[in-house]
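Ticket #253: bound-state structure for NDP.
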Amino acid sequence: MKKTVLISGATAGIGKATAFLLAQNNYNLIITGRRKERLLEIKNTIESDTNANVEVLNFDIRNNSEVCKAIDSLPENFKKIDILVNNAGLASGLDPINEAQIDDWEKMIDTNIKGLLYLTRKVAPLMVDQKSGHIINIGSIAGKEVYPNGNVYCATKHAVDALTKAMRIDLLPKGIKVSQVAPGLVDTEFSEVRFHGDKARAENVYKGLVPLHAEDIADVVLYIVSRPSHVCINDIVVTPLAQASAYNVIKNS
Ligand code: NDP
Ligand code: 8X3
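RESOLUTION: The complex was predicted; output attached.
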C-alpha cells in the first residue's frame, strides 16, 4: 500500500521539489502552504504526470487553530499520515542584533519554531495511534553554527536541531522515527524572502558558486524515507562543494 506524506511548505523550493520526487516514487501526498493557487497547480501537475493522489491543505502554519482545522478536515483516505516533512520555514532579514526588526524576529520564531511545533503536536498523536510514523525536520547548517547577522534565524534552526533530538527521544517508545536534514546554501525563494523581495540581493548570494538545488535536498529526503524499517537516519548535513561551513564559502570572482 502507498504511504502518505504530508509536506509543509510545498508551494516552493525544497518542499515543492520533495513533493514531485516522492510522487514519482510511489507516495501519496498532502501538500500545504499559504499560496492556494500554487498548491492547486502542483496537485494538477503531479496527478496528471504520476499515479500519486494529492490532497491540498491551505493554511498559515503560524496559526494553531488553522493547523488543527486543516488536519481535522482531511478526508478518510488521507487520515493515515505515514511521514511528516516539517519543511515550511523562512529567514526574514539579515541584520545585527542591535538593528534588526522585531517583526522579522516574530515571523521566524512563529514559523520555524512555533509552526513546526503546532503541526507536529497535531500529527504526532495520529502516528502514535497508528503505532508507526516518520517525522523529518528540515533544519539548516544555521542550526549547527551561527554566522554574522544570522542571530535569530540561526536560533530558530538551533531550536529545530534540539527539537529533532527531543522528538526522537519522546517518540522512541512509540516506534516513530525522527530525522533531520540540515542543508547549506540551496537556491530557492529563500533569499528573496529573507531580503524582503530584493531579487538582485538574493541572486548575489548564489553568484560565483554552484549552490545546492531544491532537488538535491528532495533526494536526501527520499533516501531517508526509503531506508528499511529498522533504520533511522538521525541527521544529514549537506552543503554544496563550494561551502565548508555556514560562512566558509568559496566564490569564483
Ligand atoms: P522557499 O522560500 O522556496 O519555500 C518556503 C516554503 O515555506 C514555501 O512553500 C512557503 O509557502 C512555506 N511557508 C513559509 N511561511 C509559511 C507559513 N507561515 N505558513 C505556511 N507555509 C509557509 O524556501 P526553501 O525551500 O529554501 O525553504 C524550505 C526550508 O528549508 C525552510 O525551513 C528553510 O529554513 C530551510 N532551509 C533552506 C535553505 C536554503 O538555503 N534555501 C538552507 C537550509 C534550510 P507559502 O509562502 O506559500 O506559505
Ligand atoms: C539557510 C542556509 O546559510 O543562509 O538555512 O542560513 S543559510
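RESOLUTION NOTES: The chain has one domain: 3-237.
TICKET STATUS: resolved
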